[in-house]
Design brief:
CATH topology of the largest domain: Rossmann fold
Radius of gyration: 20 Å
Helix content: 40-55%
CATH architecture of the largest domain: 3-Layer(aba) Sandwich
Order of helices and strands: EHEHEHEHEHEEEEHEHHEE
CATH class of the largest domain: Alpha Beta
Number of domains: 2
Strand content: 15-25%
GO molecular function: phosphorelay response regulator activity; transcription cis-regulatory region binding
Keywords: DNA-binding, Phosphoprotein, Transcription, Transcription regulation
Shape: elongated
Organism: Acetivibrio mesophilus
Number of helices: 8
Protein name: Stage 0 sporulation protein A homolog
Pfam families: Response_reg, Trans_reg_C
Structural class: alpha/beta
């Protein structure tokens, strides 16, 4: 089932949309913390976003731009500010469609379903991994944390991807080395140690401390 994130500060409208989309078999969530929309987005990992322009703290254009830094997920703007300037602005900021308020729920569902079909007919899934505010982009070698972007090496990116995919579990050094170099040939274990040390230092530079935990004699984990 597709997951839809609703970024709308009018709780009445948000809940109506939430319940109606759920009745069509979609998994829905409404944002409630409008200062940390990106964290909610990353944690929920939706297949489509519905977003209003007028929001507390930062407007919909801002959050659309922030989402576009880490994901190409479809975004539909829903707003009563439906003049040509706002429609053009929404599309230029990365939106895929615009629905003017007030709107018919049948039209909303039709547009959502059409955009989901166009986006996921051939590729299905999301392109980020998130844990404790750390957002790893699977489409390039980058990471976002509290508005800071880190460019990672191929090995650093692969290490984090493996650990985040298995978060809460201990990943052995042998498994990490195999995933990094994808060979049964002998690889000096010190090479992995050096890569882990460099990655930890890079994470610490943006305030991500004690993220990768060493389990002595076992391997590494992200808890």
């Amino acid at each position: 089932m597709h997951k839809i994130l609703i970024i709308e500060d009018d709780t009445t409208i948000a809940n109506i949309i939430k319940e109606h989309l759920a009745s069509w078999g979609m998994i829905t969530r409404c944002v409630t913390d409008f200062q940390n929309v990106l964290s909610d987005f990353a944690e929920f990992s939706p297949h489509l976003v519905l977003i209003d322009i007028s929001l507390p703290f930062y407007n919909g254009y801002h959050w659309c731009s922030e989402i576009r830094k880490i994901s190409q997920v479809p975004i539909i703007f829903i707003s009563s500010a439906s003049d040509n300037m706002n429609i053009v602005m929404a599309i230029n900021m990365g939106g895929d469609d615009f629905i003017a308020k007030p709107f018919d729920l049948a039209v909303l569902v039709a547009k959502v379903q059409a955009l989901l079909r166009r986006t996921y007919d051939f590729t299905y899934g999301t392109d980020i991994l998130e844990h404790k505010g750390v957002i790893l982009n699977l489409l390039d070698y980058s990471l976002m944390y509290q508005g800071n972007k880190l460019d990672l090496t191929k090995n650093e990116h692969r290490i984090l991807q493996v650990l985040l995919e298995q978060r809460g579990k201990v990943v052995s050094r042998d498994t990490l080395m195999y995933r990094l170099w994808e060979t049964d040939d002998f690889i000096d274990e010190n090479t992995l140690t050096v890569n882990i040390a460099r990655l930890r230092k890079k994470l610490a530079s943006v305030g991500i401390e004690e993220f990768i935990i060493t389990k002595k004699g076992l391997g590494y984990t992200v808890e």
